[in-house]
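Why does this matter for the project? Reviewers at the last site visit asked to see concrete outputs rather than summary tables. In response, this paragraph embeds two records directly. Each consists of the residue sequence and, immediately after it, the corresponding structure tokens. Nothing has been edited or filtered.
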Amino acid sequence: MSELMKAAAFVRPGGPDVLEVMDVPAPQAGPGQVRVRVKAAGVQPYDAAVRAGWVPAGLSPEFPRIPGNEFAGVVDQVGQDVDGVSVGAEVLGFSLTRSYAQYIVVAATDVTPKPAGLPWEVAGALTAGVQTAEIALDTVGLGEGETLLVHAAAGSVGTAAVQIARRRGATVIGTAREENHDYLRDLGAIPVVYGEGLADRVRALAPGGVDASIDGAGGHALEVAIELVKDRRRIVTLVEHGKAAELGVLTTQGVRSAERLGRYAALVAEGEFKFPIRRAYALADAADAHREIETGHGRGKLVITVD
């Protein structure tokens, strides 16, 4: 009899209600792979898109499908030809999907050691925010002394982008709802509210102009970025993928790495980088986590904890 595990999965695409906890075969580590007993898994719009029917390149068309592409946990199997990772190691990492489960198998190169001072919830939710933010900033070539406009600056990617940009010596203007403005100031950004007149408000804050923009909101916010940034190749949208080519703006160009993840995990553990968790859900409540992520509102990251 094959080994079974609990997973929040779906057998047909749809709304959050299609997610349910079910027994599925537990994966086994093969050559070059490790199996991780998952303690926490981050929740992001990417996961909701997979649940709704989007099939990213490389995803098996088979059902049931298990969402989730970031996780933290304890290694419990190590495949052949793996060096530097041992059973019992506490790690965090990333995958295409499958992290809403008790076990996940990934390439050994896709995990990094979890610092002792990093809480499981933060470790499991970290990779998407920090990796997407740094890749986006590298894509626009942000440099010291430049001005960056970040839309949806209080979200997980926005939170990371503000801090990374400030560490590079840039000035950051961040859009967010007014209740999040003190939070953005604490991160080092100049906050500004959404809505009519946004372009003029940003101009008043950046008389020297805006050099680049990271768009996590889309719609009118992206239109404002296009109006303010002279070179559209210095605008990255995280949400308007279907319109990017037509508008002449970019999407993120790059791949995730364990090295990058490890750097930011160490910074968070040392108190040098903020990455707040908004709310933690049990595996059985994954559908509720998806309902919340699809509102598009809220400060910090959602995470699923796995018993």
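We now turn to the second protein, recorded in exactly the same manner.
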Amino acid sequence: MTGNLSPFFIWFGDAFLFLRDFLVSLFRKKFEWKQFARQLDVIGTGSLLLVGISGLAIGVVLSMQFNATLARFGAESLLPSMISLSVIREIGPIITALVVAGRVASGIGAELGSMRVTEQIDALDVSAVDSFNFLVVPRIVAGIAALPLLTIYCDFIAIGGGYIGILIERTITFQEYISAAIRFIGPDDIFPGVLKTTVFGFIIGFVGSYNGYKTTGGTVGVGLSATNAVVLASLLIIVAEVLLVKISILFF
């Protein structure tokens, strides 16, 4: 039993040391702003199309599904409010995080993994460049910064998709839809949904960077790093969502 648990404890300890190195580099070393801007563009701008399509589909599906349910109780007028609240509080943040994790975590893992097995990271260290501070820190910080922006973007697209879904069933003006959609929305609905995506962004950047930076085993190891990054990041996002929902209920 102990032998089976040993790899887990070794991995956990190594991840904790990786986190420690990140915090030390972030607060005690020069921040690489150019690398940060580049990674923010890769993570943020590069994910706009995928996140937008996902948000549109979510809005249309929620609209059609909720409309059928509310029609049983004669409460179709609440449909815009249900769509907006569902998207802003829970569905928008988690779907955005999972979509970005699938694209970005694997990309970071594969990129850094390739640099590791081709000894490019070793070359940076030999050249007196702190490879960790140069490669890892900007990616994690960019993930933290990009996810809230992508979530807000997804929320707007999803709410717009909800309007399209309603038009399939009945006629309503866009002004009437938006007025009903924002009727019950307050700061207590917006802030928890946006703030928790910073945690999701950290998970994506951290897991992708950790798996890529620690890659071993040549080209096969690069593939494993990319795959493990996606699987672990998605799993941790779901676990974090459960915990953060409980915290948001207590404080908001």
